[in-house]
Write a structure and sequence with these properties.
Largest sheet: 7 strands, mixed
Helix content: 25-40%
Strand order of the largest sheet: 2-8-7-6-5-3-4
Number of helices: 13
Order of helices and strands: EHHHEHEHEHEHEHEEEEHHEEHEEHEH
Bound molecules: pyridoxal-5'-phosphate
Structural class: alpha/beta
Strand content: 15-25%
Number of strands: 15
Shape: globular
Length: 392
């Protein structure tokens, strides 16, 4: 296949698959607990390798089943009060924003959208001017689900550092695609997922919490892994980021995540970034040359996600047609990143997201097939098909 859905879930490399299979075999042979004991070294290494990817300390890493669960673990634990301010960018993913809205309903904290420029990039001056002593949280997505925009996470970090607010970064689309260093960014919390640009197994994610940032905050839920039942009436919460984890997990997938992260680091995140950006730039340039295609990515810094629409075609029809040709894309509906897409009147778009293993020849073929579809539209448009009606 031509897999241009890496922003959904990328193809896993052989060593990742082998590691997962090996552990499943071990579980079948020994039993789940015994297999986990036998793999305790590999399991411990996962924290170290994720920490190395992010420039963090292993004690600052929790392994989760998704980025959303990592984010929720922190958000739902925060002691928010009526009138507290939560600042979120226009690029936030639906799951994150829904959580913020629920928190707002529960606590009376107010969710405010960070003003942005014409490209949807957070306005640093406006953010700085609006942060005050009631600002509890600033949330920014490094790369949104719906476009190749790379947000200035470091510059925003410098602004947030001047306030008391907790700085939370969603690195779901950037981890494994772009350098992500928590010290450079200056964030307190960062979440990522395994299945996207890191090429890890599904059902894996991670949470970074800066040491000291949330020491006094108890997770909203605790279990026997997150806390110690010290006596009949009391418990002691563990002091590292693993206080946000739960005991039970997909051990094989976790081991696979560790292998995937190591694999990405061996390839080199800078190399990956350069290659992905170059392929995506080629894709945007070629798409731009097809008259009926509207490329929707905005901003001065773009990465591997390319969002577009094809005139007079429903996005799901474009995706399905391409799928029939063995070419994978995805449809992003406005409800995934409502604050970004709705004001631009984009109800849906096709997302083609490239990885380093994609080739220039694949990009060329992709654009050729789209040009063919565009031609079909042209013919049918002459026969009076209304725009947006779709062609099957
Ligand atoms: C920008 C962004 N944030 C968060 C998520 C959620 O990640 P997960 O499904 O691992 O919770 C996604 C998933 O598509 C995403 O693209």
């Amino acid at each position: 296949v031509v897999h241009f859905n890496n922003a959904g879930a990328a193809l896993q490399p052989t060593p990742v698959l082998e590691a997962v299979r090996q552990h499943l075999d071990l579980e079948a042979k020994l039993g789940g607990y015994e297999a986990a004991e036998a793999a305790s070294g590999a399991l411990d290494d996962v924290y170290g390798v994720v920490a190395a990817l992010l420039g963090a300390n292993p004690c600052e890493i929790a392994l989760m089943e998704s980025a959303t669960r990592g984010l929720d673990a922190v958000l739902y634990s925060l002691p928010l009060e009526p009138g507290d301010r939560i600042h979120a960018s226009t690029q936030e993913y639906a799951s994150s924003f829904i959580a913020l809205l629920q928190l707002s309903r529960r606590t009376g904290a107010v969710v405010e959208v960070i003003p942005s420029d014409a490209d949807g990039i957070p306005d640093l001056e406006a953010l700085e001017a609006s942060l005050d002593e009631r600002s509890r949280l600033v949330m920014l997505t490094h790369v949104p689900a719906s476009s190749g925009t790379v947000n200035p996470v470091t510059e925003v970090g410098a602004v947030v550092r001047k306030s008391q607010a907790l700085y939370v970064v969603d690195a779901c689309q950037s981890a494994g695609q772009l350098p992500v260093d928590v010290d450079v960014i200056g964030c307190d919390v960062l979440v990522g997922t395994g299945r996207k640009y890191l090429r890890g197994p599904r059902g894996t994610g991670f949470l970074y919490v800066r040491a000291g940032a949330l020491d006094s905050v108890e997770p909203a839920t605790l279990d026997y892994h997150a806390a110690d039942w010290s006596d009949q009436h009391g418990y002691t919460v563990r002091s590292d980021a693993r206080k946000y984890e739960s005991f039970e997990c997909a051990v094989a997938a976790r081991i696979g995540l560790g292998v995937a992260v190591r694999y990405a680091m061996d390839v080199g995140v800078s190399n990956i970034s350069e290659r992905v950006r170059s392929l995506a730039a080629d894709l945007r340039r070629r798409l731009g040359a097809i008259g009926a295609v509207e490329v929707l990515d905005r901003g001065p810094d773009l990465c591997g996600l390319v969002g577009f629409r094809l005139q007079a075609w429903r996005c799901s029809d474009v995706r399905d047609r391409l799928r029939g040709l063995g070419i994978h894309t995805w449809v992003v509906e406005a409800s995934a990143t409502r604050l970004d897409l709705e004001p631009r009147d984009v109800r849906e778009l096709v997302r083609a997201s490239v990885h380093y293993y994609n080739t220039e020849a694949e990009v060329e073929r992709f654009c050729l097939e789209l040009a063919r579809l565009a031609l079909t539209t042209g013919v049918l448009a002459v026969h009076g098909l209304p725009p947006g009606a779709g062609v099957n």
